[in-house]
Amino acid sequence: MRNIIVRTMALIISVTSLLLLSETTSSGEPEKNTTIKTRNNLFTLEPPGGMTFESRCDGIMIRKLSYNQENNYFLINGRTIYKLPLGPIEMAEIFRMIDQEDYLSYPLQKSHRRKYVQTDKTEKIAGVMKICYDYFSNIVFGRPDHLPVGMKLLPESVLKVNDVESSSKVCVNINFRYSFIVDRNSLRRRACNVEINLLPPDSLRKTDSLWDNMDIKLTEKYKEPKAYQDNAVHLTGNMKYYLKNKIVERVVSYGEAAAFARTLKRQYIDLTKIADHLSATQVARSTTDAEIRR
Fold it and tell me: How far apart are alpha carbons 130 and 173 in whole angstroms?
């Protein structure tokens, strides 16, 4: 896009300064107390089993973006603060993922894993997502004894067990949707809605890799076990409790970071350059802290 001007400045070690990451000549800013519209495309690119993360901020025009290292926030257009939901290193990895693929997911089948550039950080992110998926899916399957270590069921809850062996095969899709709001010069996440979808297993799908509209027709005839339906209702109905778990909180933050990254990408802002700056500032700060400790 011709009217996009990306300016890269020298790394600033001082933690009190703002690092200018990008600047454009576009006009327009969100009004105060404006709910940011999001766009959701459920199942257009994802396999049925696993976790999917949707949405982006479609109502905010970003003309200038700076990063405050000391307080870990972006300053948008010189006045709107967006507090990063993750530390700079993890935020940088999510930005790189979105720059490569435009979406974030944790598919159940290994053959469907997205071909990100694998690093220790992406492996850690995938590991955290797996714990969250195992947590939620085992609740749906009525297996409290299979919950990951440290993950708890809502007190005094009883999950139902499916007694019909032939109907036990089902894929659990956990879909995270986000909405944002600008209030008093602060951009923040307004809500995270979690949907639990019980879908036909991969063996019934008509395509080899991607979930598309042809497969959606299968759900009209597919009858998932009632026990799983009831457990899914329990999970969504008590999501306020389950979202308090530290692992789940981190996964929610991954999705929020991805939604914000899509917003930048849609406005032709170079996510890789921003990610490189986030990583570099963290390394510079760690070096400075080490020198101070010496």
Answer: 13
Query: Distance between CA 272 and CA 245 in Å, rounded?
Result: 31
Amino acid at 233: V
Do residues 64 and 77 touch, judged by C-beta distance below 8 A? Answer: yes
The share of the chain scoring above pLDDT 90, in percent, equals 48
pLDDT along the chain (294 residues), means of 10: 30 38 50 40 49 83 92 95 96 92 69 55 88 95 94 95 64 90 92 87 50 52 79 95 96 96 93 93 52 32
The tokens for 63 are 């003309």
Residue at 274: amino acid letter: I
Sign of CA pseudo-dihedral 159, 164, 165, 167: negative
Whether the Cβ atoms of residue 68 and residue 54 lie closer than 8 Å to each other:
no
Burial 85-121 (b: 16+ CB within 10 A, else e): bbebbbbbbbbbbbbeeebbbbbbeeebebebeeeeb
Q: Which residue has the tokens 């790394």?
A: 11
Whole-angstrom distance, CA of residue 193 vs CA of residue 174: 10
CA separation for the pair 20, 5 (Å, rounded)? 12
How many angstroms from the chain centroid is the CA of residue 258?
A: 5
Residue 189: C-alpha distances to residues 37, 51, 76, 101, 269 (Å): 12, 19, 15, 23, 21
| Average of per-residue pLDDT values in the chain | 75
Bridging pattern class, strands 186-199 and 80-83: parallel
* Dihedral sign (CA 253, 256, 258, 260): negative
Closest CA to 22 of 63, 79, 50: 63
pLDDT the model gives residue 11:
25
pLDDT in tens, 183-200: 889 999 999 999 998 877
pLDDT (tens digit, 9 = 90+) per residue, 133-142?
Answer: 999 999 999 9
